[in-house]
């Protein structure tokens, strides 16, 4: 793959997590004097409200404006709204919220901001793929955009290293990490299948668990896997456990969403 040239546009997709924050910082340091670096966020209503505070702090830290990119079909940027309209919460090839609120929003942003979209020669993407996510980065490059700059992978920065980086920089991480969630995604992320995760949601955010249980039953979406069998959230034993919460891993919710059991690193 070629390298960015003077005047190229680089879109950094910031998901309100530590990894994408560091990816934006390294991109600006490496290419800021050469290229037009744009940092873009796809807001989602169901994220923890403290993500907005972290976004503002990161914006000040980077010294650039973080742009807002929404799907015009979903101006409220609500995952719950997407699930109702799409008639499901998690499908075999991914979650419809990611497709509608991330991927399609990105495509609309490209069409409005990049001449000759979709992004081709002279345009680049940066995602928050950590050094341990090389397979996901390769899959994104293969199926979505080949013009992706793996800045964290090239720097050898794992997701845990990114978390430590922002703390050492004096940034307060999003509250969602303090609440022991694996990343800064929506509370009650429908890509999760672990009983450990969902019982954590039940304990920390009981109102979210109740909402997900009602909507998933109504839409026929079995979100949790126990003994290798999918069941509804309202069927989940509150004492059921899978892998320990500290060993679970979910990637930051970005422009690429494949369905995987939550597995983990930070």
Could you list the spans in which at least 5 consecutive residues all have pLDDT below 50?
Answer: 257-266
Provide the number of structural domains. Answer: 2
Biggest β-sheet, characterized? 4 strands, parallel
Percent strand equals: 5-15%
Helix content: 25-40%
Average the pLDDT over all residues and give the rounded result. 89
Number of helices: 10
Distance between the termini: 30 Å
Q: Structural class of the secondary structure composition?
A: alpha/beta
CATH architecture of the largest domain: 3-Layer(aba) Sandwich
Structure, explained:
The structure is a single chain. This protein has 266 residues and is α/β, with parallel strands linked by helices. It folds into 2 domains: 9-176, HUPs (Rossmann fold, 3-Layer(aba) Sandwich), CATH 3.40.50.620; 178-247, no CATH class. The protein is built from 10 helices and 6 strands; from the N terminus they run E-H-E-H-E-H-H-E-H-H-H-H-H-H-E-E. The chain has helices at residues 18-31, 50-62, 79-86, 96-113, 134-143, 151-154, 159-168, 175-178, 195-204, 206-219; strands at 9-14, 36-41, 66-68, 123-126, 224-226, 229-231. A 4-stranded parallel sheet has the order 3-2-1-4. The protein has a two-stranded antiparallel sheet with strand order 5-6. Strand 2 (36-41), helix 2 (50-62) and strand 3 (66-68) form a beta-alpha-beta unit. The longest helix is centred in the middle third of the chain and has 18 residues, at 96-113. The protein starts with 8 loop residues before the first strand and ends in a 35-residue tail after the last strand.
């Amino acid at each position: 793959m070629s390298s960015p040239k003077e005047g190229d546009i680089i879109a950094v997709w910031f998901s309100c997590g530590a990894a994408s924050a560091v990816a934006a910082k390294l991109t600006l340091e490496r290419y800021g004097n050469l290229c037009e670096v744009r940092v873009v966020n796809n807001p989602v209503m169901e994220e923890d409200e403290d993500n907005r505070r972290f976004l503002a702090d990161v914006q000040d830290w980077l010294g650039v404006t973080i742009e807002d990119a929404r799907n015009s079909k979903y101006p409220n940027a609500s995952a719950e709204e997407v699930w109702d309209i799409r008639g499901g919460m998690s499908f075999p090839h991914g979650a419809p919220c990611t497709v509608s609120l991330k991927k399609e929003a990105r495509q609309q942003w490209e069409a409005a901001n990049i001449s000759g979209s979709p992004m081709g020669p002279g345009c680049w993407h940066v995602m928050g793929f950590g050094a341990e996510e090389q397979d996901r980065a390769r899959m994104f490059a293969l199926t979505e955009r080949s013009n992706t700059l793996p800045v964290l992978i090239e720097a050898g920065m794992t997701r845990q290293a990114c978390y430590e980086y922002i703390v050492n920089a004096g940034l307060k991480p999003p509250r969602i990490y303090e609440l022991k969630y694996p990343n800064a995604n929506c509370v009650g992320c429908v890509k999760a299948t672990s009983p450990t995760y969902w019982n954590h949601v039940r304990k920390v955010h009981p109102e979210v668990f109740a909402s997900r249980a009602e909507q998933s039953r109504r839409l026929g979406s079995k979100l949790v896997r126990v003994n290798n069998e999918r069941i509804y959230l309202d069927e989940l034993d509150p004492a059921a456990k899978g892998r320990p919460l500290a060993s679970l891993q979910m990637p930051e919710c970005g422009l690429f969403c494949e369905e995987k059991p939550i597995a983990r690193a930070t």
